[in-house]
Structure formats: C-alpha cells, structure tokens
Amino acid sequence: MADKQLSEGKSIGALTIDVDCSDALKGLKAVQREARGATAALKELDDVKKHTCPECKTITLEIEAWWSDKETPHEVKWCTHCGWSNATQT
C-alpha cells in the first residue's frame, strides 16, 4: 500500500539529513591554493622564457615594444649578456 502512495506522488513524511562537509571544504580549499600556486609558477615560467636569450640561454633579454600605428605592433629584443639582437614584428 505504501508503494502505491509513493508512485502517485503523495507525501508520507519528512526526511532530515545532517551532512558534515567541513573536511570536503578543507580539501577543496587546499586544491584551490595549490591551483593558485601552480598558476603563479606558470606565469613566472612564461616570464622567464620570454626574457631568455635564444643565443646564450641566459635570462638577460631586454624587450622594447611600441606601435607604429594603431594596428602594427613592433618589438625589439636584445641580450645584455652576449649582445644578440633581433627586431621582430608581431
């Protein structure tokens, strides 16, 4: 008889569930902290790669960028260690 009442959509009572999610939230916050750290490390690595000289492989590359007009960016790179220089249009 109870099965018939449920299948017709009638309520037979209330159910209360008490769930402790504090450990799960602590874990998620730890994952978020690690993700932020990894993102910062990737940004730093990208910055290091951007300033690494392709000739002598030292982190001494200087970069100067400018726009000759509204649509044409230019970039000059030079190494303060070995003197390598390259003017590129990006």
Automatic annotation (TrEMBL):
Protein name according to UniProt: Uncharacterized protein
UniProt organism field: Lentibacillus salicampi
